Each structure stands twice: as C-alpha cells, then as structure tokens.
Amino acid sequence: MTQAIQQIDSKSNVISEGFAKQSQEQIAQVALIREQNKKLQAIVSDLNHVMGMTNTKLSFSVDRASNKTIIRVVDSETQELIRQIPSEDAVNVAQHINGLMGILYDASA
After folding, report:
1. Which residues contact 56 (CB under 8 A, 6 or more apart)?
2. Contacts of 70 (CB under 8 A, 6+ apart)
3. Coil, helix or strand for 78?
4. Which of 28, 37, 74, 79 meets the CB 3.0–4.6 Å disulfide criterion with 57?
C-alpha cells in the first residue's frame, strides 16, 4: 500500500513538473512576442517619421486584430485615403477566415 502511494506521489510530481516547465515556456514565448511587438511599433514609428519629413503621406501601422502591417497612401492636402495595402476588404476577409478556422478547429476537437 505504501509503495502504491509513493508511485502515485512520484507520478504526480512528474506531471506537476511537466506543467511547470510548459507554463515557463509559455511565459517566455509571451515575453518574446511582446518584445517583438515593441520593436515593430518602434520601426513603424520611425518609418512614419521619415515619410513625414519628405512631405509624403505614406503611413505604416499594425492591425491589432491580425497583427499585420497596413500601409496607407493618403493625399497630403485633402487627407483622403488613396490606397491601402492590404485593402480594408482583404483585412476583413482574413479576420473572418481566422474566426472560421477557430470554429472549425473547435468543432473537430
């Protein structure tokens, strides 16, 4: 009986160590993603600053939902959007596809 309890304790220790290691890896991944996002925001800010010095209205931003770079060409006099890459429609379609992928994944699980 004592031996069985020791085996159970041993197995639960192995499982909890595995969970601890996995959560440490996830924390490290989140920290890396945050660092990359900060660097990306700094680059976007620098690009916007450089383009502003040339009197060209070309703005760079990052879509928060998709984490993709969006480039906008704007008329400097009227502030009218001339072109966006990728287009607003393409961004919306990509978001809907990502949502559907989540639904399909959940349904298959």
Report:
1. 76
2. 60, 61, 62, 63, 84, 85, 86, 91
3. coil
4. 74
Q: Which amino acid is at 85?
A: I
Token readout for 73 is 């060409």
To the nearest 10°, report the CA torsion of 13, 18, 23, 26. 170
Q: 104 pLDDT band (50/70/90 cuts)?
A: low
Could you tell me how many residues make up the chain? 109
- Give domain limits for the chain: 1-43, 57-109
List pLDDT tens digits, range 39-89. 988 887 888 787 777 666 777 788 877 778 888 888 777 888 888 888 889
Task: Answer yes or no: are the C-beta atoms of 61 and 44 closer than 8 Å.
Answer: yes
Nearest-angstrom CA–CA distance, 64 and 44? 13
Nearest to 71 by CA among 98, 90, 96: 90
